[in-house]
Amino acid sequence: MSRLAPNLLRPRPGILPSPIMARSDTGHTQRARGFAVGILPGPIAVESGGSFGENLAGSSAAVKLWVDEKPDFNTDVEGLAKIMVHTINARATHTLHRINKLLQHRQDTNMKRALQSCASRYDAIIKEDIPESLQALRLGNYKFAEAGTMDAAFEARLCEKEFRRCKSPLADMNRVVHDVSIVAASIVQTIV
After folding, report:
1. Are 19 and 52 in contact (CB under 8 A)?
2. Domain spanning 27-191 has what CATH number?
3. What digits encode the pLDDT tens for the residues 159-191?
4. Residue 126 · residue 118 · CB < 8 Å
5. Burial class, 136, CB count within 10 angstroms (exposed 0-12 / middle 13-18 / buried 19+)
6. Where in the chain are the domains?
7. 107 falls in which pLDDT band (50, 70, 90)?
8. How far apart are CA 95 and CA 101, in angstroms?
9. 14-53 burial string, b = 16+ CB within 10 Å, else e?
10. Which position among 43, 102, 109, 150 has the lowest Cβ density within 10 Å, counted as fewest Cβ atoms?
């Protein structure tokens, strides 16, 4: 069994929008599918109990992004890449919500500074890297899609490095965003 970060859940039946059966002439597709299925989220705590997209995203802006993209999902590697980019969005949105909650509590200056920097980094992932990657996938510009997902991984890693003077309350979340982003980039590389 593959090693997963502790806060990742295996998908449950009925959570995925449809069976993901990637088609390709290479074994890369099946390996990418295996990695992706191992890290796709179960529902993120959302009160609505709504659709897969709502459970995946957990915020109204993210749900809109999901609904806008949903008709483009298909069962090939490109469709899997889009699902993974949405997974990055879901995890980054969840992490940003956690950062904002932590910022509401009184923190020492090192912690506050690190959290503010991380909020800026995650804001960039959500507002720049995710839309760039999705648009690049739609247009068939896979190098830009790969760059956007790699940038998301880089931002998550830099966020974690901000906590060099204090203990990171985001270590697991940063690791998940980083790892999901790397897997997404790997999937996009199989298309190129």
Report:
1. no
2. 1.20.140.40
3. 999 999 899 999 999 999 999 999 999 999 998
4. no
5. buried
6. 27-191
7. confident
8. 10
9. ebeeeebebeeeeebbeebbebbeebbbebbeeeeeeebb
10. 109
- Token pair recorded at residue 11: 């998908």
Residues 155, 132: Cα–Cα separation, whole Å: 15
